[in-house]
Amino acid sequence: MQIQGYFDLRFEAVRDAFAALFEHTQTRGAAVCVQIAGETVVDLWAGVADNAGELPWHGDTLVNLFSCTKTFTAVAALQLVAEGKLQLEGPIAEVWPEFAANGKSRITLRQLLCHRAGLPALRQPLPPEALYDWNAMTAALAAEQPWWTPGEAQGYAAMTYGWLVGEVIRRVDGAEPGAAIVARTATPLGLDFHIGLDDEEFQRVAYLTRAKNDFGDAAAQRLFKVLMSDPASLSARAFNNPPSIMNSGNKPEWRRMAQPAANGHGNARSLAGFYSGLLQGRLLDAAVLDEMRREHSAGEDLTLLSQTRFGLGCWLDQPEVANATFAMGPRAFGHPGAGGSIGFADPDRDLAFGFVTNTLGPYVLMDPRAQALARSVAECIG
């Protein structure tokens, strides 16, 4: 496998670890980028970007980042807090009156951002096309009753996060949520990142495939069993209602829509650049960033059926949990995306990391491919 790109000679072992992904896993295409103090020390890509295996992965190949998108969305919301246009403790219903229905009048932005609002799923079955109808999804969430008393438990809002936080941003910012988030996060940093992709960019997008006969770890198997055996469960409804969620990633309508929880498109550079921007104070001031990466919720996750630990719109490291660590410093924060892509920062090393792939693994928390690369980076730094 020919590895393209650049690496500082101190990080030759990372290049070797990246090459090993193509030799020892089913990875078809991927990229990794590492920045230290804003300087790029690793920027590598390899493999194929199309389903037929004929189109090589390029330096500007885009891929669906799935939930890596959520931190961009949270940062846009926190910018509105810093501007005095939103309050973390303010009820969402103050800016979205319909949201107060069915016991939600006191749910706060803080609870939405750290997955404690009780709205990870919708009970009423929705048709597949509802996925692409912003008004239908936000109306359904405004009418929904929380699955638990808000603030008393945590459950990862895999998809609903995008409509919930996105609608708050739309009502306060005035722009459509995808455009607002990109303008506030990617544009100031010059990042190749999109929420709601233009058709002319489709040719740059890597086709998503799934790893074959890989059932993941115990956490992945536990969640998969519930998704298959209990369609009425919170977990199943979070991922399968609307039923088009899990099988739409390559569809044009998925790429076009703006779903700020799950369909941002970018690459390893844009993830690393985003977290560099956060560390440099270019998106949030130090006090707001500290609040974002402070622990807000930790424990058993009612959606993912695993231990999770959240800041505001980001995952926090769980160093003692093998499948839930960023594999670097204990103060690392960031966000994985379904299938293996991940972006995070390690503030103790002033380091930003991005990894993307078009070969989706089954893991619920961290993907071992990204963890192996992060460990290699840490070892190179010493």
Automatic annotation (TrEMBL):
Keyword Cytoplasm in annotation? no
Q: Record keywords: Lipid metabolism included?
A: no
Q: Beta-lactamase-related domain location, by residue?
A: 15-374
Q: Which GO terms describe its molecular function?
A: hydrolase activity
Q: Which SUPFAM superfamilies match?
A: beta-lactamase/transpeptidase-like (SSF56601)
Keyword list, A-Z? Hydrolase
Q: What is this protein called?
A: EstA family serine hydrolase
From which source organism is this entry? Stutzerimonas degradans
